[in-house]
Description:
9 helices; globular
Amino acid sequence: MSRDARWKALLELLVERGRLDVEEAAAELEVSAATIRRDFDQLAEQQMLVRTRGGAVVHGVSYELPLRYKTARRASEKQRIAKAVAELIAPGEAVGLTGGTTTTEVARALAVRGDLGSGSPALTVVTNALNIANELAVRPQFKIVVTGGVARAQSYELIGPLADGVLSQVTLDVAVLGVVAFDVVHGAAAHDEAEAAINRLLCERAERVVVAADSTKLGRRAFARICAARAVNTLVTDAAADEGVVRRFEEAGIRVVAV
Length: 259
């Protein structure tokens, strides 16, 4: 296992459990305790975790794993969700994409759709996510509009009043939201309040709103609210979604697509 892959795995375990012991991590990753100690020390230097006697704990009370450290966990579910979301978008539409691993997969699914291979433009994509803009900019049939703003390292998203200025001047057919939590009562949410504010503005500028979220995000709350559940038209999730949770979304008037 490469160091990069090992660090990703360590950080994901740490986010899940809140605390990791050296011996526990070494057994999980099948490497030596000395290797894990060295990894913990180097990650602590980058302020990715807090070193403790015999292990490590997450850095801060509310921890968000930076996008560059997220592995392909639940990759097949996210790819299925992304394909289903892409199929909801018609040629020629103006689409808003927030940042995140699932919305990045949506961008990739749109890029390979045969009927979007040409057009003037085939799609207009408005995004505040630098990585999504970078992936789609090489598609000449897509018109890419990137908001201004200050880059947020965790998600590669541009936030702040400069992003507000661009979004207030556009109208979208559909906004696709990547979220960390979506609940009937508490709505869609993100970790960061500035990120949530930009995502909220994308929703307000769109005729319809689609939440793309795997089943682990459903029925959960997070710190910063993006929008109320009633603002969402469609939820696309995976087939492992709890039937009771799905039923509550449907009763709230949200179309649920489980793939």
